[in-house]
Amino acid sequence: MIDFLKGPVVHLEQEYVVLDVQGVGYRVFCPNPYAFAKQEGPVTVYIHHHVREDAILLFGFPTREEQKLFRKLIEVSGIGPRVALGILTGGTPDHVISAIYQENITFLTKLPGIGKKTAQRMILDLKDKLDGLGTANFQTGLFALEQNTESGELSWQEARDGLKALGYTETELDRVRLALKKEGAEIDSVDILMKKALKLLYVAK
């Protein structure tokens, strides 16, 4: 089984990246492919190698912690790889872990593909199995789920870098930033910000 891949990103889409590993292109589905857009040279992507009857799929993450959390999520009944990837797209690993420790069903049901029953199963199945994936703050329930202004700015900077790599100008990005603020998108994840920004940029054309 493939544990990680290392090579330059040669192609980027909304759902996946293509890594060139010694002349072989690997399509790897990621929570936020655009996070790799600003990196130059070879990148290391930690892989979950998923095999089923009709397909062999690679899911990739920038850290081992995200790889481990993904694997914990797909152990929950009703959560397959695609739903688990959507969870990590809709919320940062820190927030997902914290919500599970705090039994915050309201937060969990806002994640893509997660209803109330699945959120309850996540809490029941994972609350005692996430040791080592979060800091002491997550484990004691002291981590605040609400993102502050600083973290919102960091998310936008990462999304902005990805959009610049796709060829958009500073003027276009400044205009989109104002529109996103009006929509109250400050607490969105990087991937959601990217998708909303691309939609606005497409409409503007």
List strands and helices in order, with pairings.
Elements: E1 4-7, E2 9-12, E3 16-21, E4 24-29, E5 43-52, E6 55-61, H1 64-73, H2 81-90, H3 93-102, H4 105-108, H5 116-126, H6 136-139, H7 149-165, H8 170-182, H9 190-204
Antiparallel strand pairs: 1-5, 2-3, 3-4, 5-6
In summary, what is this structure?
Keywords: Cytoplasm, DNA damage, DNA recombination, DNA repair, DNA-binding, Hydrolase. The protein is α+β, with helices and mostly antiparallel strands and 205 residues long.
How many separate structural domains?
3
Q: Give the CA-based shape.
A: globular
The major beta sheet can be summarized as:
3 strands, antiparallel
User: Architecture of the largest domain, CATH level 2?
Assistant: Orthogonal Bundle
Mean pLDDT: 81
The quaternary organization reads as single chain
List unreliable stretches of 5+ residues.
135-150
Alpha carbon gyration radius: 17 Å
The SS-based structural class is alpha+beta
Measured between the Cα atoms of the first and last residue, the distance is 44 Å
Which fold name corresponds to the CATH topology of the largest domain?
A: DNA polymerase, domain 1
Order of helices and strands: EEEEEEHHHHHHHHH
Count of runs of 4 or more consecutive helical residues: 9
| Cross-sheet strand order for the largest sheet | 1-5-6
CATH class annotation of the largest domain = Mainly Alpha
Number of strands: 6
Helix content: 40-55%
The CATH H-level homologous superfamily of the largest domain = 5' to 3' exonuclease, C-terminal subdomain
Instruction: Report the β-strand fraction as a percent range.
Output: 15-25%
GO molecular function, one term: hydrolase activity
Pfam families: HHH_5 (PF14520), RuvA_C (PF07499), RuvA_N (PF01330)
Subcellular location: Cytoplasm
Main location: cytoplasm
